[in-house]
Amino acid sequence: MKKFFLPVAFFALAISAQAQEAQEEIVEVVPSSKYKAANYNKWSVEVNGGGNNAIYNWNNKSSDAKFLGLWHADLGVRYMFNTKFGLKADAGYDRITNRDDSPEFETTQWRFGLQGVINLGRVLSFEDWTKSFSLLFHGGPAYSIFQNDNIPEDDEMFSVMAGLTAQFKLSEKFALTLDATGINNFGMKYTWNGLSRNAEYLTVTTVIPSQVVNGETIPGQTVTSQVANPATNYTRHLNPLLNVSLGLTYYFGNKQQHADWYLEEDLSQRIDNIEEMLKDDDNDGVPNYLDQEPNSAPDAVVDTKGRTIDANGNGVPDVIEQYIKDNYPAAGNAGVLSDSNILKQLIDSGIINVYFDYDKSVPFDASIGGVDFVVEYLKMNPNASVEILGYADPAGGASYNQALSQRRADAVKQIIVGKGINASRLNAKGQGIDGQFKGSAVSAHQLARRVIFKIK
After folding, report:
1. pLDDT at res. 32
2. Which of 142, 179, 291, 368 could form a cystine bridge with 159, CB 3.0-4.6 A?
């Protein structure tokens, strides 16, 4: 009889713990993306060089700036909050010169800006048709400084800019970029070629060379006149500058990909992965991703990690056999089961327990067999008594779990009373939450929902 009850109890314990652990660990396979740390790099440095065009030069058409003069450069540092939105701090330089057929002038402009960035490639799902091309929209305010040799002071102004950057992925660390950005300067006091917008008239000096007419020399002369300043006819709040540039972006960080190119695994792929993980090739009830013994023999009883509980098939769980071997090598299995003192030690050691489902006070049917060992011991020792200690897992409040653990202890007490033991010999105590499981994985909580025994 004793040989029958011992394996039944431990087989039941293993099966119930395995079922609960597998069920609860599956929940943890795919954590909520809300709390999941980003699996991509967020920082990048961008260097660009190219041309510019100052679209309006309000003097006359002969003073227009050179179209796409090759004197533009900018440097930016960008941070992506996620795969779609980010922020960029940048500095730019432009040198604006005259067309070949215009009066000479040279103007420089420095700007320092802060721009918002939208990864249109991810917003518009470019990944559906390409993995190596994307578009970034960027825009924001800037502080600009305008300099020209013909003006007495630096012209400082507020600017707004916006643009599109085409990205061509070269590797996980580099991307080639082609950018077009429009900038408008508000409040320019001077034109691009250095004319004051505040002067109503301009002084124009014309030199007329000497001439010979009918053998008579007419001396040259210099004529000075006042003409209306065309720069006053145009608003100082409309001063566009166009930049077109080619550049290189470097992504830094210890992740494999940058946010510009990172793709979240789609739901169908996640489901496929979970289904693959939950396969049980050896049909032992433990999914492959948890199975530490993936080739268990048919019908073998295994623990929560898929390891065979009774590898030699003698009806005694391996954990008990190992305990006996380590502590009572001379007695053997049969000697232990007939020895009251050894059985007492087994009970007090915590090996024999009764387990419960989540938020339940009715024990698993298969784990009730462990109660019979306590009953047998009490029948062999009429003067002995037993403490029945109930526990709960860390989920829930302390007061609720205290009451739950008491109900569990009372339920086991009634089972023992029903097997012929006087209630006066049984002291049921609820212990509340088992402190040793606080902070443990959810998969370990099954082991906390139990009743243990202490011989008195």
Report:
1. 43
2. 142
